[in-house]
Amino acid sequence: MRVLRPSENPITGEYSSTHKGYDFAGLNLPDEVRAGMDGDIIERVDEFTTNWTTTGTLTTRDYGNFIKVRHADGSLELHAHLRKGSSFEKGTRVKKVQTIAKIGNTGKSTGPHLHSEYRNADNVNVEAEFETEPMAVIT
User: Fold this and answer.
1) What is the predicted pLDDT for the residue at 134?
2) Residue 18: CB partners within 8 Å, gap ≥ 6?
3) What pTM value is reported for the model?
4) Measured at the alpha carbon of residue 112, what is the angle toward residues 127 and 46, in degrees to the nearest 5?
5) Are 26 and 111 in contact (CB under 8 A)?
6) Nearest 5°: CA angle at 107, between 23 and 17?
7) Is 65 left (phi over 0), alpha (psi -120 to 50) or beta?
8) CB–CB of 8/135 below 8 Å?
9) How far apart (Å, rounded) are the C-alpha atoms in residues 63 and 80?
């Protein structure tokens, strides 16, 4: 899946068979999360203010605050560990490059960072090919 990179911050966790997304650094760096493609926010959790640790099986709750964007082709992007109150509401139409949330430290998180996942139209996690064009600011 070819998408715009959601953050200019360094990647601290790559996609793998055990980590089905990408982690971007967040401490003392820009905190904007940008949409990778045009789409609609179809799911939003915005209730947490803290992070936690778990020793069991991960659940959706461990994303902390997150949003899911559906693109016209049915593919999805999910951005997790967001700052409370920073993401757009469910049903909002977003444009590629637009700031849609802020990096936080909620859910199963060891510090401020962004976890981003990309899924095909069958909701199966896939690797992303990040576009290298510079980010323009759309608010």
Assistant:
1) 58
2) none
3) 0.93
4) 85
5) yes
6) 40
7) beta
8) yes
9) 5
Q: Cα separations (Å) of 23 from 14, 74, 127?
A: 7, 23, 13
The answer to whether residues 110 and 27 touch, using CB atoms and an 8 Å cutoff, is: no
Mean pLDDT (10-residue bins), the chain, 139 residues: 96 96 96 97 98 87 97 98 98 97 97 98 97 61
Instruction: Write out the two tokens for 41.
Output: 């926010």
Give Cα 93 to chain centroid, integer Å.
16
Burial class (CB in 10 A: 0-12, 13-18, 19+), 74: exposed
The answer to whether residues 30 and 109 touch, using CB atoms and an 8 Å cutoff, is no
Q: What local confidence, expressed as pLDDT, does residue 137 receive?
A: 54
